[in-house]
Amino acid sequence: MARRAQTGAPKSPPKARGKLAAKPKGTPAQRESALETRDLTPRDFPVLAELFGDNGGCANCWCMWWRLEEGERLQELPKGDTRARQKRLVESGRSQGVLAFKDGKPVGWAAWARRTELGRLQRSPTLGCDDAEQVHSVPCFFIKAGHRGQGVATALLAHALRTLKREGARIVESYPVETARKLSNSEAFTGTVPFFEKAGFVTLRTGKPGRQRARKTL
Q1: 148 with 186: CB under 8 angstroms?
Q2: Integer Cα distance of 18 and 48 in angstroms
Q3: What is the 3-state secondary structure (H, E, C) of the chain?
Q4: How far apart are CA 182 and CA 47, in angstroms?
Q5: Domain residues of the chain, as ranges?
Q6: Do 216 and 198 meet the contact criterion of CB atoms below 8 Å apart?
Q7: pLDDT, tens digit, for every residue of 142-189?
Q8: Would the pLDDT of 13 be above 60?
Q9: What whole-number distance in Å separates Cα of residue 170 and Cα of residue 15?
């Protein structure tokens, strides 16, 4: 006796098991523009100058604020002074840090140094420590306008920590700001408490609002 032909729509093929792929984040343009980071070299002052622009990053700082001598004020220094100082540091290999690039253009910077090289930090009454000779500091960041809030600072910090560990650093400090109000970019150049705690830093609170001290052991 012949079988009756099946009626209705054919069954769908079984679905493959496994997790669904996560949707890519960001706009198509952001996804196509991969972020790259690399250590600063003595030949990179023109790159740093391109990133900082005519304003020297912010208020003609040129990432020299932590290196100012006792009694010096940034706004009172002759025009071009901080630029010339940073240029000498970079070309002599004494300025250390990491640059971030998108599409070959510099978009971010983070500095690091031995804590004892940063005179302003060493003189701070609230950020002092007893083991400064053993500490490396990541004291400041600069992210180019139009690229903030896109993970550039996170990539810079991760790169800095990798390099410092490779070079034998054991204790790394940062000086993040803790405040309930929204900060301007110039106020947050040292980073914020949540940003560093997310990267594994432990905040050593000063007992006062504003800039704190945070540490991470590598």
Answers
A1: no
A2: 46
A3: CCCCCCCCCCCCCCCCCCCCCCCCCCCHHHHHCCEEEEECCCCCHHHHHHHHCCCCCCCCCCCCHHHCCCCCCHHHCCCCHHHHHHHHHHHCCCCEEEEEEECCEEEEEEEEEEHHHCHHHHHCCCCCCCCHHHEEEEEEEEECCCCCCCCHHHHHHHHHHHHHHHCCCCEEEECCEECCCCCCCCCCCCCEHHHHHHCCCEEECCCCCEECEEEEEC
A4: 30
A5: 35-217
A6: no
A7: 999 999 889 999 999 999 999 999 999 999 999 999 876 676 666 789
A8: no
A9: 50
Q: Give the CATH architecture of domain 35-217.
A: 3-Layer(aba) Sandwich (3.40)
Lookup result for tokens 């009172």? 76
**Distance of alpha carbon 66 from alpha carbon 162, whole angstroms:** 23
Contact between residue 177 and residue 212 where contact means Cβ atoms under 8 Å apart: yes
Query: Where is mean pLDDT largest: 146-150, 207-211, 214-218?
Result: 214-218
| Global confidence as pTM | 0.82
Rounded to an integer, the average pLDDT of 44-55 is 96
**Token representation of residue 83:** 């630029």
Backbone angles phi, psi at 153, to 5 degrees: -60, -40
- Cα–chain center distance at 213: 16
Amino acid found at 84: A
Beta bridge partners of 112: 96
| Residue appearing with tokens 């930090």 | 121
